[in-house]
Amino acid sequence: MAPVPTRLFAGVPVPDTPLISAALALSRRHLNNIAYNHSIRAWLFGFIIASKIPSLEDRDLEVHAVAAILHDLGWAEKESGEIVTQEKRFEMDGANGAREFLKGEASDWDKHRVQLVWDAIALHTVTSIAWHKEPEVVATSYGINADFAGPDRAVGGHLSWDEWNVVVKEVPRLGLTQGVRDICCRLCREKPDTTYGNFAGQYGERYVEGYTLRGKRSIDFIEAVDLG
Fold first, then answer.
1. Do the beta carbons of residue 124 and residue 140 sit within 8 Å?
2. Cys bridge to 23: 69, 132, 174, 195, which one at CB 3.0-4.6 A?
3. Angle separating helix axes 61-70 and 33-50, nearest 10 degrees
4. What is the distance between the alpha carbons of residues 130 and 157, in angstroms, rounded to a whole number?
5. Model confidence over 136-189: pLDDT tens digits?
6. CA neighbor of 92 nearest in space, from 195, 228, 203, 174
7. Topology (CATH) of 8-174
8. Could you tell me the residue ranges of all domains in the chain?
């Protein structure tokens, strides 16, 4: 794989290409400050962690960067025909939005690279699957997980508090915990049918009046249909 230009961002060496700059602009345009900063930290933490894991060193750096930066496009605040739909869960909206972005901005990419970005975004909330896929998908998920878990619970202990503090100083958290709660509750109110199969539904059941997972879980469907 040909080398790509790099730069230091919050002390982390990251690739620096026109495509990544375009991905940053797209994320900035559609996400609020909390979600945007989370996406950037997930990118940086993923690069820190992956640099310490030999099996991830040969991943496609541009694929990893684009997937991390765009992984929460489905959290766009206002319904948009460009990205956010009424009928798809936010991971699908994000993955499809990234794929459309790549069709326009990365015409030289083959289908495999585009699919890796799609998979990394579509599966980023399902670590039990994502962590067993290609290096780009794994590294993207590791970085996202680290932003929620913190250094003490980051995969393999591969994120130090010193590294964490440098990144967070450059890209503040801005109240991520409450921000994610607000976003997930909004999804539960605005398009509840898309939240029954992901973690957003857990926020709905706890915080959104009238919302319930009862009758919407897989076990409810299987046992209701019981054909013997």
1. yes
2. 69
3. 150
4. 19
5. 999 999 999 999 999 999 999 999 999 999 999 999 999 999 999 999 999 999
6. 195
7. Hypothetical protein af1432 (1.10.3210)
8. 8-174, 175-228
